[in-house]
Amino acid sequence: PLSEINTEMTDERYAEIWQRVRQRGGYESETRYHRKDGSEFRSAVSATYLKDDSGEYLFLSGRDITERKRAEHALKISQERLSLALAGAGLGLWDWNVVNGDVLHDDRWLDMLGYKRGDIEPAITTWNKLIHPDDFQRVLRTLDIHLEGLTSVYQCEFRMKEKSGRWRWIQSLGKVVDRD
Q1: What is the pTM of this model?
Q2: Among the residues of the chain, which ranges form H helices?
Q3: For position 78, what pLDDT does the model report?
């Protein structure tokens, strides 16, 4: 019986799922199962309900997602560590896709300038507009030198306009991670 490999699947739970499948025409969930040796694995289960003149049918399929769940957990831990390290160092994070001009900022980077997510367009053109006019050409030259591969790291100090209109000195560090 199913209850031997899935201790979460009681007769009541099965009846509840069966009813939900009948009402909605399908059902998807993630659940834990146990192998014969007692080890546990995670599975994504999909159920489809069909009814015709000959009766009602429930088609079930399952996929082992144990490795995906382990990878998701490891990624979550890694993201938490990065977030703590950035917060502890007082750093904001940005990522620029040179090909399409999109820029991703983390909340700390936005907060340094008084912005919230959605306040500014996530594009290189926005970044350019926030740089102090007296610093702009120097920033671009420093960036171009790095993009040409003449420096291993992009590093530049310049002023950026806060949401309040004040200028704030920023030390910006970056590195090309992929060239084509």
Answers
A1: 0.63
A2: 2-5, 11-24, 66-89, 107-112, 124-130, 133-147
A3: 96
